[in-house]
Amino acid sequence: MPVIAIAPCGKLPDYEESVRRAGGDVRALVRTADSPADIVASVQGVLLTGGGDVLPAIYGAIAHPTFDPAEPGRDEYEIELVRLALAADLPVFAICRGIQVLNVARGGTLIQDIVDEVGTTVNHRVVMPQHSIAHDVWIESGSLLERLMGERFEAGEACPVNSRHHQAMRAVAPGLTVVGRAPDGVIEAVESPRHPFALAVQWHPENLQAQPAMRAIFERFVAAAAERRLTVSG
C-alpha cells in the first residue's frame, strides 16, 4: 500500500479519508518533526492541502488588504516539499491552496483577491456546506485531468465543482499547463506533463467523493504512488 504524505491543515480527516478510500495509506506531516527531504525519501506521493494565503512577498507582491496568512512557516515548508517531490518524480496532487503553493514554488504569481482583481460574477467562495456546487469548470481536451474524469461524465460537458477560495493563479509558472478554467477565466486546474503525475485543482474534490469523477482523481493519484513504490522496491 503506497504511503501518501499529507500537508498539515485544519480539515485533515477529509483528505485522509479520500486517500484511504482510493487504496492509499496516509502520513500526516508535522512541520517541526518531518523534514521535506526525509519525507520525499520515505513516501510514494505528496498531497498539498487547503488553508491560508501564501505570503505575497515570496512571489514579489505587496499584501492585499484581504490577505489571510497561513500558519507561520507553512509556506516555506510546503514550497520546499513540493520542489523536492517534483525533483524526485514523486506523484504530487495539490488542492486549493495547494495549486497556489505549487505555482509559486515553480516561479508563478497569484491573484490575491478575485473579486477585486478580476471583478467576476462567478462565486468562488461558497464556504458551507462543503459539497455545495459553486460553478462549472471546463476541462481541456487531451489533458491528464480529462483522461481521469472523462469516463465519468459525457465528453464536452462542464464539470460542476465546489469552491471556497478568494485567490487564484495569475502568471502560470514554467512547466505547468492550464487544463481547467471557470466560466470567468479563473484558472482551476494545472498539470505538469513532464512528471509521471503532477496535478493541481482549485476546488475541493475531497468533499465531492459522492461524484465518481472526483473519486477517480484520488484513485489515479494513489495508483501512480503505487507504481512508484513498485519501481523503487523493484
Describe the model.
The chain has 234 residues and is of the alpha/beta class. Helices cover 31% and strands 18% of the residues. The strands form 2 sheets. Strands 2-1-3-4-11-10-9-6-7 form a 9-stranded mixed beta sheet, sandwiched between helices. Strands 5-8 form a two-stranded antiparallel ribbon. Strand 1, helix 1 and strand 2 form a beta-alpha-beta unit. The chain is globular and about 45 Å long. The two termini are 15 Å apart. The model has no long low-confidence stretch (mean pLDDT 92).
Topology:
Elements: E1 3-6, H1 12-21, E2 25-28, H2 36-42, E3 45-48, H3 74-87, E4 92-95, H4 97-105, E5 110-111, H5 114-117, E6 135-139, H6 144-149, E7 159-161, E8 168-169, E9 177-181, E10 187-191, E11 198-201, H7 212-233
Parallel strand pairs: 1-2, 1-3, 3-4, 4-11
Antiparallel strand pairs: 5-8, 6-7, 6-9, 9-10, 10-11
Helix pairs in contact: 2-3, 3-4
